[in-house]
Amino acid sequence: MGKFSKGILGGFSGKVGNVVGGNWKGIDYMRSKSAFKNLNPSEAQLSQQLKFGLSIRFVQSMSGLLELSFNSFAIKKTGVNSALSYTLKNAVTGTYPVFSIDYAAALVSRGDLPNVLAPSIVMGAGSLLVFSWTDNTGVGVAKATDKALPVAYCPELNQSIFITAGASRSAITETLNLAAFSGKTVQTYLGFISEDGKNVASSIYTGAVLVS
Asked: Does the predicted model carry a pTM greater than 0.70?
């Protein structure tokens, strides 16, 4: 049975007839109760399910980062959901039934903060991945104190290693320990976030590398 908490014109929770009500992130909603489950989905539906599965697999591996790094676009949704929407729309490639993530088109952070110039990676000894870049402090709202968001995603393990408040923009280098991915190929990205966490730079894809 549904329960009205704000009178007949307010939101309600539970089920009233064929209508289900609830509240998510402070927003009242209503939806129709599903009458039946489609046991014969169309090719378009199957295609969307495959794309969704690929995208959610990617974003869930770094959900702790995305809640921060997609916060600017998380309007009435979570950062992870915002990243999922972006990935579905921009980073899934292929034709049914074979789809894949275009890692160069994916983002692990998104915003208007200027990113650094000429980011690059080098695989060092001991499974240490070294990111380096050119400091561009003073361009737009870029500050020397902005923090790096280095990311390495391992598709084979569906796991990510990242730092949510790395070295400063002016430090021009940051390191990730990828010992857990030894012998695996990883996809790498570099984003930035302001010291107060309010401004985020859209990430730059820094390439794939085999972890030694």
From this structure: yes
